[in-house]
Amino acid sequence: MNDERTQKIAFNVAGTIIGALLAGLAIFGIVASQQTDSPQKYTETINYNS
User: Fold this and answer.
1) Average pLDDT, stretch 5-33?
2) Second label for 26, Cα 20 to 30 Å away, from 2, 38, 45, 48?
3) What does the buried/exposed string (b/e) look like for 26-37 if buried means 16 or more CB atoms within 10 Å of the residue's CB?
4) What is the pLDDT, as a whole number, of residue 15?
5) Strands (DSSP E) along 1-50, which ranges?
6) How many CA atoms lie within 13 A of 46 on its CB side?
Protein backbone atom coordinates (compact mmCIF):
# COMPACT_ATOMS: atom_id res chain seq x y z
CA MET A 1 0.00 0.00 0.00
CA ASN A 2 2.85 2.38 0.80
CA ASP A 3 4.53 1.47 -2.48
CA GLU A 4 1.40 2.47 -4.40
CA ARG A 5 1.34 5.84 -2.65
CA THR A 6 5.02 6.41 -3.43
CA GLN A 7 4.41 5.55 -7.07
CA LYS A 8 1.55 8.08 -7.30
CA ILE A 9 3.76 10.78 -5.81
CA ALA A 10 6.55 9.91 -8.26
CA PHE A 11 4.14 10.12 -11.21
CA ASN A 12 2.83 13.49 -10.00
CA VAL A 13 6.35 14.89 -9.62
CA ALA A 14 7.44 13.54 -13.01
CA GLY A 15 4.29 14.92 -14.66
CA THR A 16 4.86 18.33 -13.12
CA ILE A 17 8.47 18.43 -14.33
CA ILE A 18 7.55 17.28 -17.85
CA GLY A 19 4.69 19.80 -17.98
CA ALA A 20 6.96 22.64 -16.91
CA LEU A 21 9.53 21.68 -19.55
CA LEU A 22 6.88 21.55 -22.28
CA ALA A 23 5.48 24.91 -21.19
CA GLY A 24 8.97 26.42 -21.28
CA LEU A 25 9.58 25.06 -24.77
CA ALA A 26 6.22 26.41 -25.94
CA ILE A 27 6.95 29.88 -24.56
CA PHE A 28 10.42 29.83 -26.11
CA GLY A 29 8.92 28.83 -29.46
CA ILE A 30 6.38 31.65 -29.35
CA VAL A 31 9.01 34.24 -28.47
CA ALA A 32 11.41 32.95 -31.14
CA SER A 33 8.71 33.02 -33.83
CA GLN A 34 7.77 36.62 -33.05
CA GLN A 35 11.25 38.04 -33.49
CA THR A 36 11.77 39.96 -36.71
CA ASP A 37 14.67 39.30 -39.03
CA SER A 38 15.04 42.86 -40.23
CA PRO A 39 15.49 45.66 -37.70
CA GLN A 40 13.27 48.71 -37.91
CA LYS A 41 14.80 51.89 -39.26
CA TYR A 42 13.93 55.27 -37.81
CA THR A 43 12.93 58.00 -40.24
CA GLU A 44 11.42 61.38 -39.50
CA THR A 45 8.98 61.20 -42.39
CA ILE A 46 6.06 58.79 -42.29
CA ASN A 47 5.54 56.73 -45.43
CA TYR A 48 2.09 55.20 -45.78
CA ASN A 49 2.86 53.42 -49.08
CA SER A 50 4.95 50.60 -47.68
Assistant:
1) 94
2) 38
3) eeeeeeeeeeee
4) 97
5) none
6) 1
